[in-house]
UniProtKB/TrEMBL annotation, chains A, B:
The reaction(s) this protein catalyses: L-glutamate 5-semialdehyde + phosphate + NADP(+) = L-glutamyl 5-phosphate + NADPH + H(+)
InterPro entries linked: Ald_DH/histidinol_DH (IPR016161), Ald_DH_C (IPR016163), Ald_DH_N (IPR016162), Aldehyde_DH_dom (IPR015590), G-glutamylP_reductase_CS (IPR020593), Glu-5-SA_DH (IPR012134), GPR_dom (IPR000965)
Keyword tags: Amino-acid biosynthesis, Cytoplasm, NADP, Oxidoreductase, Proline biosynthesis
One GO term of the biological process aspect: L-proline biosynthetic process
Compartment annotation: Cytoplasm
Name of a matching Pfam family: Aldedh
UniProt name for this protein: Gamma-glutamyl phosphate reductase
Molecular function via GO: glutamate-5-semialdehyde dehydrogenase activity; NADP binding
Record flagged with keyword Amino-acid biosynthesis: yes
Functional description taken from the UniProt entry: Catalyzes the NADPH-dependent reduction of L-glutamate 5-phosphate into L-glutamate 5-semialdehyde and phosphate. The product spontaneously undergoes cyclization to form 1-pyrroline-5-carboxylate.
GO CC term (a single one): cytoplasm
Pathway as given in its UniProt record: Amino-acid biosynthesis; L-proline biosynthesis; L-glutamate 5-semialdehyde from L-glutamate: step 2/2
Length: 418, 418
């Protein structure tokens, strides 16, 4: 099999479909999404059977429990995927939305409107729900999509893909609107990353290794997602009860995600009042604390924090804690270690809250709230394709609008340039 | 000299400056821009002397007249550069502008505001004015900038840089806010393209070769500018006088730029009425016409158009002409050959105008106006860093807003995620 020909053919099909999709009516797109939702449930048994094969393979390969959990499907999860499709159908269509309109000195009337990006490539790992979520958001925003999921989920993904693709086509969407890479040869990803003639953007979704590989090797523009080394800074003026609630939420409510807190910074003047009680509570919740020398005075029997503890994303019930001398110290620490995802200050001091919001550079900066809110759903976007940690095109949670580009539509009556 | 150390040091300085610049007041930035404008005029003689060296070298190297013209400075051009700085000072500051604000279901108040990108690298060729224009736009939008101009203009660029940088620093901007690569080793560009830790975006400005090199080799995100294979389609229902005026303007007013027309498409039903007179006029203006077989029936003694003529950007007084059977034929031709920059239809038919605007995918689509209007100044943006021909982040003319990213500023009162 010629894998170059294989992936180029898929990319060409997707590009061809994108031209038709860009002018599909909202009604056609929504009808397709609802039919895809129904098909997923009516074909549930085949999907679950395919998933069992993947799980069996994963167990044989000695994958850990967390991996198996991400991979596993059941009726509840299928229903949640199906409901996700219905939710996307109910969202407003971003295509054609006017962003700005004005008249120039030459009396040209200009409308800046949203149009689809074209063809989007999604490279992802073990979660089969991405197959559905990504397809739904791309279709709704008028884009064709090329899906390349992890080899560990290939049976589940393929059965899901066949189910939703059939429903999409029979609802009037163009052939090629969703393409799925059913060959798990890793070389295909390398080829896909160079197909600038056919693919408008690549969005990698998964671990740091996958994302780094795509960012370093793709000539197709990439939207980087995922890494979150997030901080909560408890200022000297903080309400300690509020601070404890937020810290516990940001660390323990779902530690394995990118908007969870990884390092807690505490102003020295509040440490004695704040840390002993917090330390007990965190330990009771199973959190491993790694503290600086000062922290160890207030929380006994914890591990010494190293430079590396400040650098990495634990994605686990582990928390680095550091006592700082001032707001500036806290902001310098954040400047040095932050991945610019989500950063929070807990304070009742107006000036400090404003300085933190203005001076800390991140996709989302918070006063007196948990970093866990950085999420398309929580922000009210209705759905999310990922959280961008880059600055170009989209920053923070990406909903339907972030899957569009713009076009200037210019109405003249014979104008020429002088 | 260790060139890696050389460019990394510059990039580090620029990154350090970006942190300070992001919170500079509008007043400080404007004062600096006005002082830079004044310094340029008071140091005019040294700049013109340095420019003479570059011109002498270019002549010795046998560069052509157009090249020498792009490289040459005189008092008028210096004054225009100085006025450019004043214009940028007078534009509204994009930083801090609110894009959207809302309240979530959890009563979080979210503001989406504009913030600087950080550090911008500009890689350009022989025009010394880019040194000033790019620095002005980056500074006003709160970004630090690393300038890497062509070796042919090194003496001019260095004198201009020293002049404006001194004025910037003495006006209170941070050291490193404008860095200039005064080593013309080409390897430095390759190193710069990999400095993701320090540089947030690269904008290449110049010929297709330069842009392709940066797009293919940069791991730093790139905004692609420049290539414009633009079409004007004269529909069967067009006002032929208006069509002729627009065609002549789009082709001849400034043929060497990206928004000039390269191919004219004419509906077969209007060809006999439209083409003979247009052909004479174009020939009188020195335009070389390359036509399809049908075109040659209406404009005698012209060159046969080849496939390649439809593919390339002439950037010269050369025009490809093709007669098409229908609007669909015209749109198919545009779909096949367009670089998605600027596309125009000339028509009085409402339905056709709407179909063209909806179905043609380009940064700017026009009815009854010249493609030459795709320009930051003409669109009313006040200034322009280039015209993006990509779909991510910015599409079409890029002004100050396109040199910014966004940040979500979230005000809470103790919210945690359930």
């Amino acid at each position: 099999m010629d894998i170059n020909n294989y992936i180029v053919t898929k990319a060409k099909n997707a590009k061809l479909a994108a031209r038709t999709l860009s002018t599909c009516t909202t009604n056609t797109k929504n009808k397709a999404l609802l039919n895809m939702a129904a098909a997923l449930m009516s074909n549930a048994q085949s999907i679950l059977d395919a998933n069992k094969k993947d799980i069996k393979n994963a167990i044989n390969e000695g994958k850990n429990k967390a991996f198996i959990d991400r991979l596993s499907l059941n009726n509840d999860r299928l229903e949640s995927m199906s409901n996700g499709l219905k939710d996307v159908a109910s969202l407003p269509d971003p295509i054609g939305e006017g962003i700005r309109s004005w008249k120039t000195e030459d009396e040209l009337k200009i409308n800046k409107i949203r149009v689809p990006l074209g063809t989007i490539g999604i490279i992802y790992e073990a979660r089969p729900n991405v197959t559905v979520d990504a397809a739904a958001l791309c279709i709704k925003s008028g884009n064709s999509v090329i899906l390349r999921g992890g080899s560990e989920a290939i049976n589940s993904n393929l059965e899901i893909y066949n189910t939703i693709y059939k429903a999409a086509i029979s609802s009037g969407l163009p052939e090629g609107c969703i393409e799925f890479v059913d060959n798990t040869d890793r070389e295909i990803v390398n080829l896909l990353m160079k197909l600038n003639d056919y693919v408008d953007v690549l969005i990698p979704r998964g671990g740091a290794g996958l994302i780094k590989n795509v960012v370093n090797n793709s000539t197709v523009p990439v939207i980087e997602t995922g890494v979150g080394n997030c901080h909560v800074y408890v200022d000297s003026d903080a309400d300690t009860k509020m601070a404890e609630d937020i810290v516990i939420n940001a660390k323990t409510q779902r530690p394995a995600v990118c908007n969870a807190m990884e390092t807690l910074l505490v102003h020295k003047d509040i440490a004695e009042k704040f840390l002993p009680h917090l330390g007990e509570t965190l330990k009771g919740l199973g959190v491993e604390i790694r503290g600086c020398n000062e922290t160890q005075k207030f929380i006994p029997n914890i591990i010494q924090a190293t430079e590396e503890d400040y650098e990495i994303e634990f994605l686990d019930l582990i928390l680095a804690v550091k006592i700082v001398d001032s707001l500036d110290d806290a902001m310098n620490h954040i400047y040095k270690y932050s991945s610019k995802h989500s950063e929070a200050i807990i304070t009742n001091n107006y000036l400090n809250s404003q300085r933190f919001l203005n001076e800390v550079d991140a996709a989302a900066v918070y006063v007196n709230a948990s970093t866990r809110f950085t999420d398309g759903g929580q922000f009210g976007f209705g759905a999310e394709i990922g959280i961008s940690t880059q600055k170009l095109h989209a920053r923070g949670p990406m909903g339907l609008n972030e899957l569009t580009t713009t076009k200037y539509v210019v109405y003249g009556n014979g104008q020429v340039r002088k």
